[in-house]
Structure formats: C-alpha cells, structure tokens
C-alpha cells in the first residue's frame, strides 16, 4: 500500500471517492416560509455551510489526469498474508535491499490503517513536517507575543499601578476582565497546539497528539511564569506600602534576599491567594468551556442547523453532525492541572486542600467528558502504541521533581543542622530538581514491560494462524481500503471490476468484495452489524 503525495489535489481526490454518496441523495427544497430576520440568518448559515461542508465537484474524466500528476512518497506499507510471513521477511532482509540503484529500508511498525493520516504524506514526510512545524511554531510564538502585549500586559500594569491602600481591591469588573484575558490565553494555547499538531504534516496520529500535548503544556507554563512574575511584583509593592502585614518582628526592607521574602508568612499568604485565584478562575473556566463545547455544545448547534435546513441530507448532514474521533488531548490539560496544584504546595496549607479538591473536580470533569465522548459522541478511535502515554510520563517527571524542591524549601533552616542560604540554596534546589528529573526519566526507559511500546495481539498461535483474508472478511478498514489513491488507481488505472472501494465509517454497505485485489469484506447481515458496531467503538482493524 504505497503512500502518495496528493496534498495539492485533496479536494479532487476526496470528491471522486465520495461523489457517489452525494449523487444517491436528493436534497429537499428549502422552506422559505419564515420572516425576514429568519431568512437573513438562513442565508448566512447556508453561506457558511457551503464553505465548511461543500458538495464535491468533480468530473470523472479528470481523475486519471490527476492521478498521473500525483507523485509517490518515499515509503509504503507491505501487507503480508500472515504474521509468520512478516517475521520471516524481516529475518531474511533485516537491513533492507537494493532496488534500481536505491537502498530500500524495511522495518516492522505498529501503525494500523486507522492511525495513518494519508492526506498528510509528502514526498519527504519528515522534512516536510519539520519545515511546517517551524513555520507554524513561529506563528504560534507571534500570537503569544501579541496576546501578551495587547491583552495581558495592559491588565497586569493596571493591577501594578492600582493603589491598594487600606485593603482596597481593583474591583469586580477588573477581576473579571483579568480572568477573561487569561482564559483567552488558555483557549489560544489550545487552538495553537491544535494548529501546530494537526495542520503540520505529521503522518502518524500518535505523533500529532504528542506534539499537541507538548505545545499546550509549553504555552501553559509560559502563561504561569508570566503571571507569577507580575504577581510577585504586585505583592512586593503592596507589602512595601504596608498594606499587608509582612512579619511580626521585621519589616520588608530587612529581607534583602528573595529566599527570605518567600519564607515570610505575609508574603506566602499573598502569593498563595494569587495562585489560588489562578486555579479557580481562568484555568478552570477554560477547561469547562472547551469540554462543554467539544462534548455538548457542538452537537447541540449542529442539530439545530440540520433541523432548520431541509437541504442538508445524507452525507452532508452526517458531516455536520459528526463528532471528531477520540483523542488524547486531555492529557495536556491534566498535566497543566497537576503543575498548578504543585505550585500551591509552598504556600500556607489552607490553599492546599482547596486546590486538591478543585484538581479532583477538574479531573472528574475530564473523566466524564471523555466517557461521554467515547460512548456517545465520537466515531471509531484507534491507538496502537503507548507513545503519547510514555511522553506524558516523561513530562510528569519535572513536575514531580518540583515537589522534592518544595520539600527542601519548607524544611530549610527548620530541621536541625540543615540551613542553606543565598545562591547555594538555589543551586542545591536546581540540582535536586534536575537529578530527580533525569532519574525519573531513566527509570521510565528501563521499564519496558510497562511503558515500552507494545503491540496488542491475541494468543500467539491464533495470531500466526490467522490470514489477511480471515481478518479482512470481518473488518472493512484494511491497508488498501483506507488508502485514497490506492482506491482511485484500482478504478481508473488498473480498472478492477469491482475496484477497491474506499472505507467510510457507517457506509460499509457500499463496499464490494474482490478477493483478487485483497477486498474480502462479507456482506452477511451478522458481519455488517458487527462491523457497524466496531465502527462506533475501539475494535482493531486488519
């Protein structure tokens, strides 16, 4: 199954593959029996729908010319009849072979048909992904800088310049505005991470999800560091003005070092309040907004649109109503939650229990959101490796390392014989954090039975005895039926009769069997019911 570079012809390719689904459906004429305002909204919605979910426009005679202009990429998937045949081939040519003056490398893979993003394959996939990642990464950094300069910085400067004498606060409107700005920042982090991960040409879905988590966590850390810096400046000014009691025996000016200031109860109380506000308002609100939209908001709006547009039928209505497949994006939000909870630990204990209750409530929200999407709101999802989980465990290592540094900070000069001040303390803290992080990651790499990428098989004898035909009879998503160009070449180049039909979840009845070209799907009613059930779940495919 050769991977082809059809990025410049994606609309024509997908139109040729799905055209028969639209041709078989005759939309009802629109009903214009409503007032002027409703008709105005109707035309606006129709304009948006025509651009977001267009009806494919293609001509049958143009497809062969499109196929001749498409170049193949530098890789392909070789499909063997049995697992034993694949192992035998790998043992025979472990280093690859020469073909027409070029070296062909052969290796095993955990990829499955449902985890390859065929529309992202370029002639040189790795170089293409790196160049696009650099370009979009630069755009994300620019967006972050603009958000800081235009939204966050003016609000932070206003808080710094506010006169907090006699315990005055900026007021409800200013607090809500700051919450709104930071919430926008978190939503921008979500959108930026999605753009970088899914618009860049990462061929494997696991790779795209990993990049999303890395981008989201990095953006969140940058926002937290920025907010912590301005919070420190504000608290320092308030304490210097005498509006917050700093210490019962000393004033703020007697504490010249940052460590001495952080150890004072008044300062800890003030900065703990700032971190707690960050936990309860902007971060929690952005999480609630994203989960509410992804789980219930989008499908509610889509149902209203489909119900009010009689011309939306068949495949177009399916696309409007269809939820995206389940992803592992929530891991990024859970990691950010954990980081914020850890940052509360250095401050007075009154903030700790409230923070961890909020953390539990947030993770419960994530759990129920994912459970609803898996059971009710998303189509089939396939994950064949532990790559995303492994990366998340590695990202957790520096967060857990902060707990050890905080323990050293809390016991410094309180335990007998242990008191380090100044630069040596910060050097010791950094060394402890770095040492824990490296040890944590090295232990993860030495636990292959738990975290190493594994391939999920049934009993070994059953996996070796089952043939490709046995599995493809019960599963429509094969290495041939999910490859768009392979299906079109089967029809227009090789002129198979019937050709290899393209797989669409929920449209298995349109697929025809042709054992001569590797298409074995059975159309028995029990098989189709089983296939339709697996389409809405997490069953594996051949």
Quick structural gist:
This protein is mainly α and 542 residues long. 62% of the residues lie in helices and 3% in strands.
List the uncertain runs: 451-463, 537-542
**Strand element count:** 4
Quaternary state of the chains: single chain
Q: How far is it from the N-terminal to the C-terminal residue, by CA?
A: 13 Å
Tell me what the structure shows.
The protein is built from 19 helices and four strands. It has helices at 10-23, 36-52, 63-69, 83-92, 125-161, 172-199, 205-240, 258-263, 265-308, 314-321, 330-344, 350-377, 387-411, 423-445, 448-451, 460-465, 468-474, 484-492, 525-535; strands spanning 2-5, 71-76, 97-99, 102-104. Helix 7 (205-240) packs across helix 9 (265-308). The longest helix has 44 residues, at 265-308. The two termini are 13 Å apart.
Write the layout of secondary structure elements.
Blueprint: E1 2-5, H1 10-23, H2 36-52, H3 63-69, E2 71-76, H4 83-92, E3 97-99, E4 102-104, H5 125-161, H6 172-199, H7 205-240, H8 258-263, H9 265-308, H10 314-321, H11 330-344, H12 350-377, H13 387-411, H14 423-445, H15 448-451, H16 460-465, H17 468-474, H18 484-492, H19 525-535
Antiparallel strand pairs: 1-2, 3-4
Helix pairs in contact: 1-18, 5-6, 5-7, 6-7, 6-9, 7-9, 7-11, 7-13, 9-11, 9-12, 11-12, 11-13, 13-14
Question: Which short descriptors sum up this protein?
Answer:
542 residues; mainly alpha; two-stranded antiparallel sheet; 19 helices; 4 strands; globular; disordered C terminus
């Amino acid at each position: 199954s050769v991977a082809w570079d059809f990025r410049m012809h994606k609309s024509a390719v997908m139109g040729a593959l799905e055209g028969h689904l639209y041709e078989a459906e005759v939309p009802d004429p629109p009903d214009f029996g409503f007032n002027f305002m409703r008709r105005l909204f109707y035309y606006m919605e129709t304009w948006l729908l025509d651009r977001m979910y267009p009806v494919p426009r293609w001509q049958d005679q143009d497809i062969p010319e499109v196929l001749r202009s498409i170049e193949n990429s530098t890789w392909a998937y070789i499909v063997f009849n049995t697992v034993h045949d694949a192992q035998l081939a790998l043992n025979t040519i472990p280093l690859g072979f020469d073909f027409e003056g070029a070296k062909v490398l052969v290796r095993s893979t955990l990829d499955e048909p449902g985890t390859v993003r065929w529309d992202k394959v370029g002639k040189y996939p790795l170089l293409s992904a790196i160049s696009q990642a650099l370009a979009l990464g630069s755009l994300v950094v620019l967006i972050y800088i603009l958000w800081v300069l235009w939204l966050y910085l003016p609000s932070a400067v206003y808080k710094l310049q506010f006169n907090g004498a006699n315990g005055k606060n900026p007021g409800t409107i200013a607090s809500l505005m700051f919450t709104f700005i930071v919430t926008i920042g978190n939503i921008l982090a979500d959108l930026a991470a999605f753009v970088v991960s899914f618009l860049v040409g990462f061929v494997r879905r696991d790779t795209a999800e990993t990049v999303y988590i890395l981008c989201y966590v990095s953006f969140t850390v940058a926002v937290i560091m920025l907010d912590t810096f301005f919070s420190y400046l504000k608290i320092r000014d308030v304490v210097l003005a005498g509006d917050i009691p700093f210490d019962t025996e000393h004033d703020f000016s007697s504490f010249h070092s940052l460590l001495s200031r952080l150890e004072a109860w008044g300062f800890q109380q003030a900065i703990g309040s700032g971190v707690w506000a960050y936990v309860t308002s902007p971060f929690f609100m952005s999480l609630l907004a994203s989960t509410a939209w992804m789980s219930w908001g989008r499908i509610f709006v889509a149902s209203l649109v489909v119900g009010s547009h009689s011309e939306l039928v068949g495949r177009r209505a399916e696309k409007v109503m269809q939820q995206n497949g389940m992803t592992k994006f929530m891991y990024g939000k859970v990691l950010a939650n954990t980081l914020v909870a850890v940052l509360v630990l250095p401050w007075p204990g009154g903030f700790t229990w409230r923070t961890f209750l909020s953390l539990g409530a947030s993770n419960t929200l994530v759990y129920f959101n994912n459970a609803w999407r898996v059971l009710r709101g998303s189509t089939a999802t396939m994950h064949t490796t532990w790559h995303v989980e492994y990366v998340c465990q590695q990202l957790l290592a520096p967060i857990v390392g902060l707990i050890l540094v905080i323990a050293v900070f809390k016991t410094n000069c309180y335990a007998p014989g242990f008191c380090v001040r100044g630069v040596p303390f910060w050097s010791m803290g950094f060394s402890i954090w770095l040492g824990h992080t490296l040890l944590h990651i090295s232990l993860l790499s030495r636990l292959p039975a738990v975290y190493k990428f594994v391939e999920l098989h049934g009993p070994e004898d059953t996996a070796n005895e089952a043939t490709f035909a046995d599995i493809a009879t019960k599963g429509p998503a094969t290495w041939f039926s999910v490859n768009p160009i392979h299906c079109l070449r089967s029809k227009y180049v090789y002129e198979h009769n019937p050709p290899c039909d393209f797989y669409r979840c929920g449209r298995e009845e349109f697929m025809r069997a042709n054992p001569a070209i590797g298409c074995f799907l059975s159309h028995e009613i029990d098989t189709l019911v089983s296939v339709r059930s697996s389409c809405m779940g997490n069953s594996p495919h051949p």
